[in-house]
């Protein structure tokens, strides 16, 4: 029987999920893989305040370094999240000659290149299946399943909390706040939900997809990021009536000139797109590969046990490679020097625009006049009569450069007939 000695650092939602997973699947893993996944030690700041059962042989400590330097431990599982002290823990573990399994997307997004370089130097591997789409095998699909293919586009719904909120707002007509509270109550949202709803969590995951699939370690700041906090019920209703649906998408494309565009924003998609039926905390990642073609991976992308599943699959993978194996993905740090980043200003999409405007003659012509001055073509206009003096005016534009829309909206916002900041949601033909 092979045995892998594991040091777990961080016994929160995901950490305790890993223990629960291993306890319920221990016999199966032994039988199926001839492998004992032995939790030798757990470090957590408040370990002694936590109820832990069935781990009598496991050392429980508040000192992470004690676990990292234990010579019998083969792999450090980092599940504390955030940048610090996670970065130091992972670096120390690699220097101590341990493999690392982590679900920390923020860490890999910000310091991935440095950490993979350090892992290579120490002849060790970093496994990170749960960093994107939690347990959905996204990382292994890209790096193993379709290894050798060329990737042209990678895009997806990669934040379960935002997808849950938008789905709840659509299905139950509840407020943004109520939907967020429910996501937190169920343990999907990050401890600081700002990372989810601001789109930053998706941006962290997108940097990982970009370096794996498109071959460039972009900076998080290179990604245009917009969250979902400005999406109102009325936008969801208008989308419905146009046979469209709003999803928070993370999109990365590489064009033939080796320019990469990377962005995260609410996106209107048609109801017949497969993403339209991805609801709740489910995630879906679309890979446009050559020569294989299109691939869609989807499933539950947030939550304790799905994240734990990805971690356990990494541990089994690691054990199957042999403890002293050289780093897989050893060339992960290679970047094509000719790849550049496209600025958001130069990207062309269609837009849904909503203005809250006075309900009086001449308003539409003022708005369309400014749009026309900026070369923005209009595909359709809807203005529903209400019993109020301020009404929503919704327009769908033709393809238009981002910069022109921004300039036009700034001008329109200043019109006395426009009551609040115009809402713009990109429409993507995927
Ligand atoms: N907060 C994340 C989400 C958890 O909602 O998708 C999984 O990374």
Explain how this protein is built.
The chain has 430 residues and is of the alpha/beta class. It folds into three domains: 2-134 and 304-321, Rossmann fold (3-Layer(aba) Sandwich), CATH 3.40.50; 138-300, 2-Layer Sandwich (Dihydrodipicolinate Reductase, domain 2), CATH 3.30.360.10; 344-427, 2-Layer Sandwich (Alpha-Beta Plaits), CATH 3.30.70.260. The protein has 13 helices and 18 strands. Strand 15 and strand 16 form a beta hairpin. Helix 1 packs across helix 11 (304-321), helix 3 runs parallel beside helix 4 and helix 12 runs antiparallel to helix 13 (402-413). The mean pLDDT is 94. The site of L-homoserine (HSE) has 11 residues, from helix 6.
* CATH T-level topology of the largest domain: Dihydrodipicolinate Reductase, domain 2
SS summary, helix count: 13
The distinct bound ligands, ions and cofactors come out as: L-homoserine
Superfamily (CATH H level) name of the largest domain = Dihydrodipicolinate Reductase, domain 2
- What share of residues are in beta strands? 25-35%
């Amino acid at each position: 029987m092979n045995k892998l000695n594991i040091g777990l650092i961080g016994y929160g939602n995901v950490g305790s999920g890993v223990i629960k997973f291993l306890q319920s699947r221990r016999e199966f893993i032994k039988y199926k893989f001839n492998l004992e996944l032995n939790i030798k030690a757990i470090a957590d700041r408040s370990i002694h305040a936590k109820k832990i059962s069935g781990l009598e042989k496991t050392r429980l400590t508040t000192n992470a370094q004690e676990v990292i330097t234990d010579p019998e431990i083969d792999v450090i599982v980092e599940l504390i999240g955030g940048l610090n002290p996670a970065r130091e823990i992972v670096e120390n573990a690699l220097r101590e000659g341990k493999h690392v399994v982590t679900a920390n997307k923020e860490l890999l997004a910000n310091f991935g290149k440095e950490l993979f370089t350090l892992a290579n130097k120490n002849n060790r591997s970093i496994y990170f299946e749960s960093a994107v789409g939690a347990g959905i095998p996204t990382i292994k699909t890209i790096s193993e399943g379709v290894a050798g293919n060329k990737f042209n586009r990678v895009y997806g719904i990669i934040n379960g909390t935002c997808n849950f909120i938008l789905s709840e707002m659509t299905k139950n007509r509840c407020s943004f706040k109520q939907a967020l509270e429910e996501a937190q109550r169920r343990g999907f949202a990050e401890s600081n939900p700002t990372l989810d709803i601001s789109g930053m969590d998706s941006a962290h995951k997108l940097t990982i997809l970009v370096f794996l699939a498109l071959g460039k370690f972009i900076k998080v700041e290179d990604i245009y990021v917009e969250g979902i906090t400005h999406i109102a019920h009325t936008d969801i209703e208008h989308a419905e009536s146009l046979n469209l649906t709003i999803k928070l998408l993370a999109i990365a494309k590489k064009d033939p000139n080796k320019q990469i565009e990377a962005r995260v924003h609410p996106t209107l998609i048609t109801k017949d797109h497969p993403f339209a039926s991805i609801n709740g905390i489910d995630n879906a990642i679309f890979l446009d590969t050559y020569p294989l073609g299109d691939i869609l991976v989807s499933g539950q992308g947030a939550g304790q046990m799905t994240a734990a599943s990805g971690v356990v699959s990494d541990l089994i993978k690691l054990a199957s490679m042999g403890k002293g194996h050289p780093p897989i993905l050893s060339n992960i740090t290679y970047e094509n020097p000719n790849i550049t980043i496209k600025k958001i200003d130069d990207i062309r999409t269609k837009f849904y625009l909503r203005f809250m405007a006075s309900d009086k003659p001449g308003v539409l012509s003022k708005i369309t006049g400014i749009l026309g001055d900026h070369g923005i073509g209009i595909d359709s206009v809807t203005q529903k009569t209400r019993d109020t003096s301020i009404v929503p005016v919704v327009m769908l534009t033709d393809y238009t450069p981002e910069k022109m829309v921004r300039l036009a909206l700034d001008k329109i916002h200043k019109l006395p007939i426009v009551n609040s900041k115009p809402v713009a949601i990109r429409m993507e033909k995927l």
